[in-house]
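>> received
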Amino acid sequence: MGFISTIKMTVRNLLARKGRSFLTMLGIVIGVAGVIIIISLGAGAQSLVLGQVNKLGSNLLSVQPGKSDPKGPPAQVYGVIITTLVNADTEALRSPSQVPHAIGVSAVVNGVATVTWQNKSVDTNFVGTDSGYPKVVNFTMQEGQFMDSGDIDGSANVVVLGSTVSSALFDGTGVDPVGQIIKVRSASQENAGGVPLRIVGVITPRGSAFFQDQDDQIFIPLAIAQGQLLGIHHLQAISLKVDSADNIDQTIDDVTRVLKQRHHIISDDDIDFTVRNQASAVEMLTTITSALSLFLTSMAAVALIVGGIGILNIMLVTVAERTREIGLRKAVGATNRVIMRQFILEASILTSIGGLIGIVVGVIVSYLMAMLMQYLDFDWEFVISITSVVLAVGVSILTGVIFGLYPSFKASRLDPIEALRYE
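>> returned
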């Protein structure tokens, strides 16, 4: 019997048992689809992390008060108030001779405030900063302009709104926000009436970054935030943007040296600040997502193995059911090789079809999940790795061959006389 004839007979046998063939393929379909979906989700998660970083800005360093483990949370997370970082530190870090690769440096304090305009009010976050902020963080202006050096140096009563705050206060009013006066009152502010501030600009919507709405913020001069809203004289952070990723380590060393000199620190054990590299945080998050994807992919691989075991069981049952057929074929001249080839083909066809269906299911589900994440306003890319498709299909076919070997070998070794007597 030729190879083509063997394939035709194999297909007829599979079609004669449609229900059993489908159930046999189901494990392979689930396994292949699972591998593709999980690898796609892992790639999407990594694109999300990188997208969030790009929204905030690339090549960023953050100097925070208090010594802490660079891989752990800053001391401020635990509610510890540390006052060692001050405005003069920011000016020192702006010096090109001290930190030559810093192309942007800004001081930052933040808090929560209630913003009021006429009879409308909204609770939001405020960021007290300086004119160097746009050089560090990526954003564009929708209206007006950001605070300039004159506003900062003169502690002018000005404010820049995020688009969420602007919409909450001015949508439907027909009033241009720029030039309007709002009042800002923090929880710790003694003056219940709030600080009157003139709107000079509105930032173009930026979306969410690391699950925080970047548009639900207002930006005010550092001195006003410190003195009138928070009642402090220290900084909560200093942000720096480095000209190149290749110069990040050098810049960390420069920042550390400058601040150690300013704070009169001799021993590293006495350091009262932490310099954090955003790229390291991204690398850590990418490592976590990759490890999680690998773990979940291994779980999907288990489904492929389970599907293979299902094929083994079904093929063994098939051999038992078709014992008389095998005996008859061998009696009329079919060789062991032909019988073995037929059963291996059955297993391979089952897994191949299951693999193709799994690819279709995996791609469709991955696409729908990507669309859902994008609908929820996440920077989630629909990514299908060719490697994952080839791997999934290759493993499924290999599974069929491996788990089809023993049943086909058993069928080929049947004695034709005994097989014809089998009932």
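>> The mean pLDDT is 78.
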